[in-house]
Sequence to fold (417 residues):
Amino acid sequence: MKELPRFSIGVGDRFAHQAMAQLAACIKAKDAGLEVVPVWNKSNREHNIIGSEPSETRKAADVAVQELAWPAPYFLDADHINLNTVERFLAPCDFFTLDVAEMISKPADAADVEAFVSRHPELIGAVTIPGIEQPFSTDAGFVTKVADKFLAAVEDAGRIYRFLVEKKGEGNFVPEVSMDETDFPQTPVELLIILAAIADEKIPIQTIAPKFTGRFNKGVDYVGDVDQFAREFREDIAAIAFAVKTYGLPSNLKLSVHSGSDKFSIYKSIHDAVSATGAGVHLKTAGTTWLEELIGLAEADGSGLEIAKEVYREAFDHREELCAPYASVIDIDPAGLPAPEEVDGWTSEQYVSALRHDQSNAGYNPSFRQLLHVGFKVAAKMGDRYLKALEANEESVARNVTTNLFDRHIRPVFLGK
Fold:
């Protein structure tokens, strides 16, 4: 059976050019004494925008692993798929994020809800989860309400999982269920109810992405109460450990933090929790590699900087179109966006300062960064011109990609440094 190790990191590579630089960061972790395995992820939407295929991502990952002699597991994630989009991912992928967000809050069949509540009397009354100080007090009405909100989504995940088993064979892929795209965070007892339903569907999930309190915007820091996040994260670890023992879910089941890119203020909380409990964690870094490409181009100056400026100009001119698909996970202050004419006059240092996520730098501009985060479509339209610029400036780009992934993500989350 394919088994996801304790620590894993989702690495997005929009243009399938940075697999080697990304893997180099995991090698640095291994040299530091810790195995963090890469999971290359790219969603159906991103493939459609760029005009690429999952097979290209697989090829880039395989080549990097061979060239750098990576000795540990690695995976390719069919990121946020459903039955309508899964087909193109079947052959190249061995990790599937089952996206059931559209089904959350859609009422389940009343008979299914009633049957679920009847099957799980242990969820009614005083529910004691080891590792959580106070027991949860529930009744049949509460369990019914939670089941009504999530059961249809879990059943949908079951349909996707069984389709994957039919096509790929049982045990030949890692299943993840994403529950993060909903309005409110799940409490530990709600997560326990969801996990009971997943077990009923016989989905051997190895990671689950719940909703946490706070804003997880693309490519910028966490916005919210860090102490509350820390408490929720620890309690979710406890709920998962209890569900594994109670419902026979895989022993390596762990939390997945979606839109985890650059959530620097919560990284210590994540590290402390997994260190104290022995739990694992999967951190998805979304599209920060694409931003490091732009930083590398700008840092190289000359034609690289000119392309970076052109990307911003086009993104600024088409910002409504680019932002629309990501509206729920970005917070851009229009007044904070510099005019393209101003950016055209920037030096390499000014552009890099605005884009690189260094909050101690007075030039850092989170609105500028978020717009460019969702602006990869602009580079996609440049076609070979953009790809050749990456190749011409490979040293600068690769250095930034590796440094970002290791120093800003792997080191604080997994190594605690």
